[in-house]
Amino acid sequence: MNYSATKIGSTLLAISSVWLLTGCSAYFHQPTRTQSARLGEETAITAELRKLPAPQEKIVAAVYKFRDQTGQYKQTETGSGFSNAISQGTTNMLLKALEESGWFVPIERENFANLQTERRIFAQNKNQADVLPALLVAGVILEGGIVSYDANTITGGAGLRFFGTGGSSQYRQDRVTVYLRAVATKSGKILKTVYTSKTILSQAIDAGTFRYVSFKKLLEVETGYATNEPAQMAVTEAIEKAVKSLILEGIQDNLWAVDGKSAEQAEQMLAAYEREKTEMSQTDIHGARNTVEPSRLTIQPYASAWRYYGDFATAGFRTGYGVTADVYLSNSFGIQLNAGVGTIASDRRFSCPVSTLHGNLIYRSLPFRKITPLVYAGVGLIAYRVGSSPVDVRGKQYVLLNGGVGAEYAINRVVGLRTTFDYQQPMTDALDGIKSGKYNDYYLRGSVGLSFYLGRSTRQVPSLYH
User: Fold this and answer.
1) CATH code of the domain in which 442 resides
2) Coil, strand or helix: which one is 342?
3) Which of 40, 206, 210, 238 is the 20 to 30 Å CA partner of 180?
4) Domain of residue 131, residue span
5) Is the pLDDT of residue 97 over 80?
6) Hey, is 45 helix, strand or coil?
């Protein structure tokens, strides 16, 4: 027993260590010394901004104020602190994004009083007021700001410990939302409004062991790390995405034009942008997306494992097989017919081949997703088999109740993978030939198999919000 516990504990520690170290850049780059200043990191959208098609003529744009409008304070373990959760320098981020895009000529308006003061000083000192050039006039004013910072939109974790050895992980996701609009200077008309969002991930992973290796000798090992995605980088990426979207939608609505040499590139980008918008209409706030059309008929051959609990002291484990047919009356609800073959047994004391037939009601909660949970329940019949044929059921027969859960993964439009686990309760205590105790015999069954989809719906996958 001690050897087994030690072996299991060592295995868990090895698994935890591999889990901790694999792909963890932060773990191998832990700061042990001071670092020199460096250029700012770029986001994934920065490179996309630079690849935008060239404009026919750059747009002179003014940004007076683009700030945090949430007033959100940083969350701490004891509540909220007095530091803002979002950078207050978002105007600078927007101006940088406008410059990177190559579509705008940003002009100074946030600190316009400082600019006017310097121009007056220059004119007085140089006596060149008559030759001082006029300031540029913005054709477009860009307004908006950070309108939402949602903390803890998703939190969770997982862990496993055995005899003081194991590991755990925790994560938290926040979300920041940006609105950006373009206003025509001459008319005051709002030309276009876009909004984007970006999640902010924080996670912690640790592994360790705490156990006595011998009398009065205690071994304790711990390792781990935590990473927090910088909120400033998330806000920058959301702003850059808003600028890119504003440019593309302006091209689409003929608010501004691309250079003739970039027309083909613009068409490709607009097509990609339309696909992205379609995908987002089918995506919820947690990133889950409707991607498949639910089938009306599913056929699933499967292999199963049976665990029997009866009046004998020991339980038995056997294997089996079967086939399931699901006919869905709606996208979520359907009728299931399940025929199976297996063996109920209690080690060497009792073993009997059986065939089962079930009629169930089945519910799939996420019919338009690639992975959907399944819940089913119903009644059935279990019969002793006399010969080797699955349908040779001349032996005893009993009614049973059953219920189970499962999950199905749609590999493509034709085939998927399904796994289930169900509880089977025959309405008799004599299933194993012995009547003893207060409770009826029962068995558990797990199965895995391929699902073949027939009668797929031809209609479009619905939006999550329409």
Assistant:
1) 2.40.160.20
2) strand
3) 40
4) 2-21+42-281
5) yes
6) helix
